[in-house]
Inverse folding.
């Protein structure tokens, strides 16, 4: 029992240390802590799997504690992430994909993207103008490059179509 408490305190300390550096989602924090402690274990393969299972249970408890303390809030994390990436010129699709890769709820992400007070079309327009300086909508090759650029940035077809309608 004493050993469990010690492990839990070590995990909690690591969680607090990571959260002091920057915001993390619950999934991201769990992954980092698991990786950190799993790499410190020196044991046979058989022992390692038992230790890892025990470790994951302990980490889950610590993550729950952090959520209850409001040190981790996935909804706020998503909201901040959306604004940060939109400010860097990325569209909804790209942001949604990045949040999914970070283990966050796809439904919550979609909901928060819809609620975000961001003019995605204007953002796409600014990115395109910055990228191509002067756009000749008659020049099909340049137009295709612009469309491709906005697609890789994660803008929707509707946003891209609207941007090109604004340009003509």
């Amino acid at each position: 029992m004493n050993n469990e408490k010690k492990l839990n305190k070590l995990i909690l300390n690591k969680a607090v240390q990571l959260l002091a550096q920057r915001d993390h989602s619950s999934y991201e924090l769990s992954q980092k802590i698991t990786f950190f402690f799993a790499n410190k274990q020196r044991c046979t393969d058989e022992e390692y799997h038992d230790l890892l299972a025990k470790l994951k249970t302990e980490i889950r408890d610590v993550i729950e504690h952090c959520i209850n303390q409001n040190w981790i809030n996935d909804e706020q994390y998503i909201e901040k992430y959306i604004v940060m990436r939109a400010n860097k010129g990325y569209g909804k699709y790209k942001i949604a994909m990045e949040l999914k890769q970070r283990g966050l709820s796809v439904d919550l992400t979609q909901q928060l993207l819809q609620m975000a007070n961001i003019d995605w079309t204007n953002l796409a327009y600014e990115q395109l103008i910055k990228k191509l300086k002067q756009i000749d909508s008659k020049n099909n090759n340049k137009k295709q490059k612009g469309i491709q650029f906005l697609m890789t940035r994660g803008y929707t077809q509707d946003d891209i179509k609207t941007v090109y309608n604004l340009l003509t």
